[in-house]
Specification:
This is SseB protein N-terminal domain-containing protein. InterPro entries: SseB_N. It holds the Pfam family SseB. Residues 12-120 form the SseB protein N-terminal domain. Residues 237-264 are annotated as: Disordered. The protein is an alpha+beta fold. The protein has two domains: 6-126, 3-Layer(aba) Sandwich (Trna Endonuclease, Chain: A, domain 1), CATH 3.40.1350.90; 136-237, 2-Layer Sandwich (Alpha-Beta Plaits). 33% of the residues lie in helices and 24% in strands. It is built from eight helices and 13 strands. Strands 1, 3, 4, 5, 6 and 7 form a six-stranded mixed β-sheet that branches. Strand 9 and strand 10 (179-186) form a beta hairpin. Helix 2 (21-33) packs across helix 4 (86-94) and helix 6 runs antiparallel to helix 7. The longest helix has 16 residues, at 190-205.
């Protein structure tokens, strides 16, 4: 029997508590984050994909698997496929209104996800964080955020290898007297800041917490605010890429958010 995957675990938790919104949100978060193997009718041609489709009373569905061996087990023959993230697949399926057959018949997470759920996931993943412009007056130890949010942030930032050094979660008072929570990233390159802010937004969304409950800021280690953040904040270390080893470049269909896969 193949090992249990994060999707298997999230699916089991969702099935065990069908009325638990938090468990359902965690499953969709795992689906958006994971790498999926999409079954095709023929080899991909650049960004053009021709997925295997099947139709039932509830709509039309594509077939995807969270492990290559699961796809091979289902197909029972050499079969072409494309590897793309769950978020890319959700965006690809939203416009034509297609559902997702996930791990059908080959895993405990076997499920038909209807078209409207994939459209919802695509829209949810596209929620953009808002920029905060008010200056910071003071920094304090963070209080009041539930453990589910802290765990979600830790999970998201654990996937942010090479995108920064660390982040500090703090309570802050702004120049206009308002107060809030701030996650301050230290030494994150400009090219990574959008992705990090989006990851924080998703962590809040899938924790069933409004995105406005947490602000995001980007600072250099030499900035005056970096010291108070390190002194009072809860630290999250971002995984490092070994010296001399570049971050892996992904050229699979869907890896570039500005060039989504095209269905044929």
């Amino acid at each position: 029997m193949s090992e249990t995957t994060p999707l298997d675990a999230a699916h089991a938790a969702m099935q065990a508590a069908p009325e638990d919104d938090a468990a359902r949100l965690r499953f969709y978060e795992r689906l958006g984050d994971c790498e999926l193997f999409l079954l095709l009718t023929e080899e991909a041609r650049g960004e053009n994909l021709s997925p295997e489709l099947f139709e039932v009373a509830d709509g039309r569905f594509v077939l995807a698997f969270d492990r290559a061996d699961r796809l091979a087990q289902f197909a029972a023959r050499p079969a072409p496929y494309a590897v793309l993230s769950g978020r890319a697949l959700a965006r690809m399926l939203a416009d034509p209104g297609l559902g997702l057959g996930l791990n059908l018949d080959v895993a405990p997470s076997s499920i038909l996800i209807p078209p409207e759920a994939m459209t919802w996931l695509a829209a949810t993943l596209d929620n953009a964080p808002q920029e905060v412009t008010s200056g910071i007056r003071s920094v304090a130890t963070p209080t009041g955020l539930p453990q589910s949010v802290l765990s979600a942030l830790g999970d998201k930032l654990a996937m942010a290898a090479g995108l920064g050094r660390a982040a500090y979660l703090s309570d802050v008072t702004y120049a206009d007297g308002s107060r809030g929570h701030l996650l301050g990233f230290i030494d994150a390159p400009e090219r990574a800041q959008g992705a990090l802010a989006q990851a924080v937004t998703e962590a809040l969304t899938f924790s069933n917490i409004e995105a406005g409950a947490l602000d995001v800021g980007f600072f250099a280690s030499g900035d005056a605010i970096a010291g108070p953040l390190a002194q009072h904040g809860l630290r999250f270390d971002l995984p490092r890429v070994p010296d001399g080893e570049p971050a892996p470049a992904r050229t699979a269909p869907g890896s570039d958010p500005d060039r989504p896969p095209i269905l044929r």
